[in-house]
Structures are given as C-alpha cells and as structure tokens.
Amino acid sequence: QVQFVESGGGLAQPGGSLRLSCAASRTILSIYTMGWYRQASGKQRELVAQIGTGGSTNYADSVKGRFTISRDNAKNTVYLQMDTLKVEDTAVYYCNALMSPTLVYYSWGQGTQVTVSS
C-alpha cells in the first residue's frame, strides 16, 4: 500500500497563487501516471491535472493555462503550482496514481484544503 500526504493548501485571494505538494510513502512516481484531483463541497471528485511517467501533462479545461503539475521522482513528490486562482478553485485537493481518469490505484489521503476568497 502507498500513502499520500498532501500539503500547501490555505487561503488565497482571487488572482493569487498556491503551490501544493504530495509526498508518496513509496517510490512509485516513475511507475505510474500521477494526478491531482479536487472535490468541492457537494460535488464529485474531479481530475484536474496529470503527469505521465515520461513527463507528458494534461489538464482539465477549467485549469488549463493556470495550473502546472510537476514531479520530483527522487523526492517521491508531485507538485501543483496554481496561479491566477479563482473562487471556483475552492476545494479539497488530493493526489493519487491513475489507473484511468476515474479510477486510482490507492486509497485517498487527507487532502489539502484550498480556499479562494476575497
């Protein structure tokens, strides 16, 4: 089993930035496509960004051009740089290893809360 620990969330103003980190308990980043997901209150969890083992990236249309996913295999850590934040980015953010956009390999971590408000 692998555990994920997400951090870096907090309160930001619209237009601001935050950088999230996700540390994996085992060396898996070079094996799996990794993704950042978010779940807003009352909504389903959605995939917002993914990074393949070769470094290719994909983003949900709602965050394209504003969010950047990256990873450091040596540190077993995935990052999400979030710029030009919007109120609608408010959610709990999670990471996991993707099996498909809707299926993941491991249990979810605690997530990190991102709140965008003026």
Explain the overall architecture.
- By secondary structure, the chain is mainly β.
- The protein has no helices and eleven strands.
- The strands form two sheets. Strands 2, 4, 5, 6, 9, 10 and 11 form a seven-stranded mixed sheet that branches. The chain has a four-stranded antiparallel sheet with strand order 1-3-8-7, with no helix packed on it.
- The relative contact order is 0.33.
- The mean pLDDT is 95.
Beta fraction: over 45%
* Relative helix content: under 10%
Cα distance, first to last residue? 40 Å
Q: Which class do the helix and strand fractions yield? A: mainly beta
Total strand count, please? 11
Largest sheet: 7 strands, mixed
Mean pLDDT: 95
Order of helix and strand elements from N to C terminus: EEEEEEEEEEE
Quick structural gist:
With 118 residues, the chain is mainly β. It has strands at residues 4-7, 10-12, 18-24, 34-39, 46-51, 57-59, 67-72, 77-82, 91-100, 103-104, 112-116.
Features:
seven-stranded mixed β-sheet, four-stranded antiparallel β-sheet, globular, mainly beta, 0% helix, 118 residues
What is the topological layout?
Elements: E1 4-7, E2 10-12, E3 18-24, E4 34-39, E5 46-51, E6 57-59, E7 67-72, E8 77-82, E9 91-100, E10 103-104, E11 112-116
Parallel strand pairs: 2-11
Antiparallel strand pairs: 1-3, 3-8, 4-5, 4-9, 5-6, 7-8, 9-10, 9-11
